[in-house]
Write a structure and sequence with these properties.
single chain; mainly alpha
Length: 135
């Protein structure tokens, strides 16, 4: 046992975090000091920073994309939310049609206007379906 202590190499690392494919540590890291959080820890054991604050800042985009949170904020069931999103997409498409297609003749201008009307009718249909599915 004494021989083990003499053969100790201080440069050898005995613990390494699990590495992902990109070479980064697969766990949460403290924003203040860069230390890995232990499993289930609420605070950093080195600097005492709050883990929930760091997790909230890194997940801010996913909070806006989460369907359950959007459903709760708008008060819509899932099918009504899908119809609402489809209606918004149709409105955006109706606006984009005028920028994508240029009208050099009267016939082209009429075609672009018909496409806009079709997209707007699709938006109206999606909104009506969403209203009917809400009840």
């Amino acid at each position: 046992m004494a021989d083990m202590a003499r053969n100790y190499d201080a440069s050898q690392e005995f613990w390494k975090p699990v590495a992902t494919e990109q070479g980064e540590a697969a766990g949460d890291v403290c924003d203040s000091c860069g230390t890995d959080y232990p499993l289930g820890a609420r605070f950093c054991y080195v600097c005492g920073a709050d883990r929930s604050h760091a997790a909230g800042s890194s997940r801010s985009l996913s909070r806006y994309v989460d369907i359950a949170i959007i459903r709760g904020a708008l008060g819509l069931p899932t099918l009504s939310l899908v119809a609402f999103i489809a209606g918004i997409a149709c409105l955006v498409a109706a606006c984009v049609v005028g920028f994508v297609f240029t009208a050099s003749t009267l016939l082209d201008w009429q075609a672009v206007q018909i496409w806009r009307v079709e997209w707007l009718l699709g938006a109206i249909a999606a909104f009506v379906i969403g209203i009917l599915l809400k009840r």
